UniProtKB/TrEMBL annotation:
Function, in words: General (non sugar-specific) component of the phosphoenolpyruvate-dependent sugar phosphotransferase system (sugar PTS). This major carbohydrate active-transport system catalyzes the phosphorylation of incoming sugar substrates concomitantly with their translocation across the cell membrane. Enzyme I transfers the phosphoryl group from phosphoenolpyruvate (PEP) to the phosphoryl carrier protein (HPr).
Protein name according to UniProt: Phosphoenolpyruvate-protein phosphotransferase
Species assigned in the record: Amycolatopsis balhimycina DSM 5908
Record field: compositional bias (Low complexity): 7-20
Ranges in a coiled coil: none
Region (Disordered): 1-20
The entry's keywords: Cytoplasm, Kinase, Magnesium, Metal-binding, Phosphotransferase system, Pyruvate, Sugar transport, Transferase, Transport
PEP-utilising enzyme mobile domain boundaries: 153-220
InterPro entries: PEP-util_enz_mobile_dom, PEP-utilizing_PTS_enzyme, PEP_util_AS, PEP_util_C, PEP_util_CS, Phosphohistidine_dom_sf, PTS_EI, PTS_EI-like
Residue sites binding Mg(2+) per the record: E412, D436
Positions bound to phosphoenolpyruvate: R287, R323, N435, D436, R446
Length: 555
């Protein structure tokens, strides 16, 4: 019988091919002898670190944008003089090359991890260089994606952030990881690149290099050693999907023309290329944290004005929703957040920071209003982490004082979703952040892959909250969009349309599949589908209901 493994559906689409396993990080042998010639060990350690840096520099030269900036930062960290000093000190203490590298990096990794949040995540980048240098010192293969010819399905524990930037959709047909949930870094990158992916698939540990697998990223299944017929079917499905995507262009709409705007999530100045901007109807979420991270004080009004203007320039005549600073929790910013919160996800983050540091919020609103006057985009502004109607009203008043015409808030706290009607009475629009809304609804840390099942966007309680917000917005005659990762799931797009959601905001590469999925049904069919999906008792059954609906209605 054909074996089928199950995991979290992370990036839709189907693919079949041979397994290539990520090379695991090196493990230092338990025993070591103090080297007879410390100088030779020092030379070996330095050579290994130099080789790892040279390899990074080579890879950085072949990529651009965010990938390049991540790698440039890694290279800078690897060239830090204190690392070389640490290696020397360790060798002087009688440690061989590979162990000395591990010691020297250890302190830096621990320091970053203790800060937590975004800065803490940089520890993974440092660990990546450490492992590459240790592998070089031990004469082992570098960890990460092996350099192989041909196409393959990439399988491993999880993909390091430094490796995700090297994923080439022309070679990587699919991704299967043992760890990770639907909002993990691997899942987000896979969706952004349009690579079918199943994450948190415990059975993936047993998959061997060269073994053939068929990945269904929409259902979260991996068929091991599929039959030739099955592979033919997967390839036919994948070709049919590509053809379908190519057939559709333009604004988002259901089969009978009911509009659902297709917007972009942008997280950096270079995040919306001209090509991307051309294929979308605007920006539904412009994350501004990139300007504030990795620095000791806030950027000036003029610096912010210029940075926002760079993005606005590409969207003349179209809406751009700028989100005010969402500092805190996974985006720790030293001058905005306090270090000693016991539970930062439930702490002073998002709009709550703006209340305690009004100078940050007002400077940002001033910069946004100046940038809006400089350009022809239809600029709107929204606040993150709003929990009460009073907060929404205070934010609206502040935006009006700055002459920004349209003010909205994110709905990412269950309290706000439950009382959406009262929140909507205060603002012009709302946008649902399903990443945080899942986290808070299911009391499941969005960074914890282990809890991926609870963070599944098909979970009924999350969908019920989305339905409540959409109904309140319809009643108020105002817009309710979605800008969390759920918006990029083509399976959910008609469900959201049926609930009354007016826009879906996502990464550029998710747009074609979501656009095509909206055309599967008329608005009336979307409404029936939404009712059926909403009545399912759990996420897998909700997906099954949608699949059965597609089968009976030819969608
Ligand atoms: C879009 C969201 O915000 P963040 O930037 O925190 O992912 C969300 O929470 O869904």
């Amino acid at each position: 019988m054909v074996e089928e493994l199950r995991g979290n559906p992370a990036s839709p689409g189907a693919a079949a091919g041979p397994v290539v396993r990520l090379t695991p990080p090196p493990v230092l042998p338990e025993h070591w002898d103090a080297p007879a010639e410390p100088e030779a060990e020092l030379a070996a350690a330095t050579e290994a670190l130099d080789a790892a840096v040279a390899d990074l520099e080579k890879r950085a030269a072949s990529v651009s944008g965010e990938a390049k900036s991540i790698m440039d930062t890694q290279i800078m960290m690897a060239k830090d003089a204190s690392l070389t000093a640490g290696i020397r000190a360790s060798v002087d203490n009688g440690r061989p090359a590979a162990w000395a590298i591990s010691d020297a990096f250890g302190k830096h990794v621990a320091a970053l991890e203790s800060i937590g949040g975004y800065v803490g995540e940089r520890a993974a980048d440092l660990i990546d260089i450490r492992d590459r240098a240790i592998a070089a010192a031990l004469g082992l293969e570098p960890p990460g994606i092996p350099d192989v010819d041909g196409v393959f399905v990439l399988v491993g524990q999880d993909i390091a952030p430094a490796d995700t930037v090297l994923l080439d959709p022309a070679k990587v047909l699919g991704i299967v990881t043992e760890k990770g949930g639907p909002t993990s870094h691997t899942a987000i990158v896979a969706r952004a690149l349009g690579i079918p992916a199943v994450v948190g698939c415990a059975g993936a540990a047993g998959l061997e290099a060269g073994q053939r697998v068929a990945v269904d990223g929409g259902r979260g299944t991996v068929v091991v050693d599929p039959t030739d017929d099955h592979v033919r079917q997967v390839r036919a499905e994948s070709d049919a999907l590509k053809e379908k995507l190519a057939r559709h262009s333009g604004p988002g709409a259901t089969a009978d023309g009911h509009p659902v705007k297709l917007l972009l999530n942008v997280g950096s100045v270079g995040g919306a290329s001209a090509e991307a901007a051309a294929d979308a109807e605007g920006v539904g979420l412009f994350r501004t944290e990139f300007l504030f991270l990795d620095r000791t004080e806030a950027p000036s009004v003029e610096e912010q004005r210029a940075a926002y203007g760079e993005v606005l320039r590409g969207f003349a005549g179209r809406p751009v929703v700028i989100r005010t600073l969402d500092a805190g929790a996974d985006k720790y910013i030293p001058f905005a957040n306090t270090e000693d919160e016991p539970n930062p996800a439930l702490g002073v983050r998002g709009y709550r920071v703006g209340v305690r540091h009004p100078e940050l919020l007002t400077a940002q609103l001033r910069a946004i209003s100046l940038a809006a006057a400089d350009h022809d985009a239809d600029v709107r502004v929204m606040a993150p982490m709003i929990a009460t109607p009073a907060e929404a009203a205070a934010f609206r008043d502040l935006t009006r004082e700055h002459g920004i015409g349209r003010a909205g808030v994110m709905i990412e706290v269950p309290a706000a979703a439950i009382r959406a009607a009262d929140i909507l009475a205060e603002v012009d629009f709302v946008s649902i952040g399903t990443n945080d809304l899942s986290q808070y609804t299911y009391a499941a840390d969005r960074m914890l892959g282990e809890l991926g099942e609870l963070l599944d966007p098909w979970q009924p309680a999350l969908l019920a909250l989305v339905a409540n917000v959409a109904a309140a917005a319809k009643e108020a005659g105002k817009a309710a969009g979605i800008c969390g990762e759920a918006a990029s799931d083509p399976g959910l797009a008609p469900v959201f349309a049926g609930l009354g959601i007016t826009s879906l905001s996502m990464s550029v590469s998710a747009v074609p599949a979501v656009r095509a999925a909206l055309t599967d049904y008329t608005l009336e069919q979307c409404e029936v589908l939404a009712r059926e999906v909403l009545s399912a008792p759990d996420a897998p059954k909700a997906r099954r209901v949608a699949a059965e609906f597609a089968a009976k209605s030819g969608g």
